[in-house]
Amino acid sequence: MTLTRAHLAKYIDHTLLKPEATPADVAALIEEAAGLGVFSVCVSPSLLPVSTPESVRTATVCGFPSGAHHSHIKAAEAALAVSTGADEVDMVINLAFAVENNFEAVESDIRAVRDAIPNSLLKVILETAVLTDEQVTRCCLAAERAGADFVKTSTGFHPAGGATVHAVGLMHAAVGGRLGIKASGGIRDTATALAMIDAGATRLGCSSSAAVLAGL
After folding, report:
1. Are residues 74 and 108 in contact, defined by beta-carbon separation less than 8 angstroms?
2. Which CATH class is domain 5-213?
3. Are 127 and 91 a contacting pair, CB within 8 Å?
4. Strands 57-62, 40-43: parallel, antiparallel or unpaired by DSSP?
5. CB neighbour burial string for 159-177, b if at least 16 within 10 angstroms, e if fewer
6. Ramachandran bin of 101, using left for φ above 0, alpha for ψ from -120 to 50, beta for the remaining angles
7. Which residues are designated catalytic?
8. Which of 10, 20, 166, 206 counts the most CB atoms within 10 A of its CB?
9. 87 vs 177: CA distance, rounded Å
10. Nearest to 164 by CA among 122, 136, 124
11. Does residue 153 contact residue 186 with C-beta atoms inside 8 Å?
12. What pLDDT digit, counting tens, does each position of 173-190 carry?
């Protein structure tokens, strides 16, 4: 796929989720995001609200990074985030449910958050490096049934690893064209970003956005 720098920028959620990030760090992130022309910034919910240019959306996370929070807590966190300015929420599934092949519970967990933010865009983080191919596929289908808008590979915080072309391809085969697919975790250069898009990614989570765009 041949993309211009400006087109690639519009795939990017410019991300700062380090637990030590300060409001000053977020302000610098937003300034950089405006200069790069990215789609959105993604910050921790405790740092909301933020002031972004009209062209830059605001995303946040819930149940992050473990996903082991109770569904009620995830739902409340998502609702609070939206009430304080988030346009999009990236939730982490309960990985224990997925590992145990309890996909009804995965779906229920996602649905609790979906119901809490019915008018906001919801992305579902699967942490694909932890799961088998079949589990990735079935989690994607559970997310679709629960009403999610996107499925997403990774938090970027799990020691098992981040996004892979293989995982993105699995997700695309499962729900591509019906749900968006966000690749996130370890995307630090242009070649990796383009490979993820070629595999089916429609959004990229990047903390190294300037480096990703530098190759175009």
Report:
1. no
2. alpha beta
3. no
4. parallel
5. eebbbbeebbbbbbebbbe
6. left
7. 90, 152, 182
8. 206
9. 22
10. 136
11. no
12. 999 999 999 999 999 999
Question: Model-level pTM greater than 0.70?
Answer: yes
Q: pLDDT tens digits for 1-49? A: 579 999 999 999 999 999 999 999 999 999 999 999 999 999 999 999 9
Query: Per residue, what are the HEC states of the chain?
Result: CCCCHHHHHCCEEEEECCCCCCHHHHHHHHHHHHHHCCCEEEECHHHCCCCCCCCCEEEEEECCCCCCCCHHHHHHHHHHHHHCCCCEEEEECCHHHHHCCCHHHHHHHHHHHHHHCCCCEEEEECCHHHCCHHHHHHHHHHHHHCCCCEEECCCCCCCCCCCCHHHHHHHHHHHECCEEEEEECCCCCHHHHHHHHHHCCCEEEECCHHHHHCCC
Tokens of 138: 């079935």
Question: Tokens in use for 199?
Answer: 């595999």
Read off the tokens for 98.
Answer: 């997925």
